[in-house]
Design brief:
By secondary structure, the protein is of the alpha+beta class. The chain has one domain. Helix content is 22%, strand content 32%. It is built from two helices and six strands; from the N terminus they run αββββββα. Strands 1, 2, 3, 4, 5 and 6 form a six-stranded antiparallel β-sheet that branches. A hairpin with a 3-residue loop joins strand 1 and strand 2. The longest helix has 10 residues. The protein is globular.
Length: 82
């Protein structure tokens, strides 16, 4: 998946970059109460599935937050805002 396409779609849907480096980006939702979306990059390509970070701990005693993964941008945004 092309990096610029993904970045433009996230910007258009109310996400802003929280952390950007040469191999990793993390975006936060500023328009609605969505969770963080992150992914790995190499050159101008996204090399991993989009990681939608969990909101509530699945096992609070271990402070374990489970995340969901998808390769579809629209699905990642929808899952983030559930």
């Amino acid at each position: 998946m092309k990096l610029k396409l993904l970045q433009n779609k996230l910007l258009k849907n109310g996400y802003l970059p929280e952390e950007q480096c040469a191999s990793y980006e993390q975006w936060i939702d500023v328009r609605e109460n969505g969770t963080t979306i992150s992914f790995s990059i190499k050159d101008d390509e996204v090399t991993s599935a989009l990681k939608v970070h969990g909101r509530r701990p699945d096992r609070p005693e271990c402070d374990e937050f489970n995340s969901d993964f998808t390769r579809n941008i629209s699905e990642a945004i929808r899952m983030s805002r559930l």
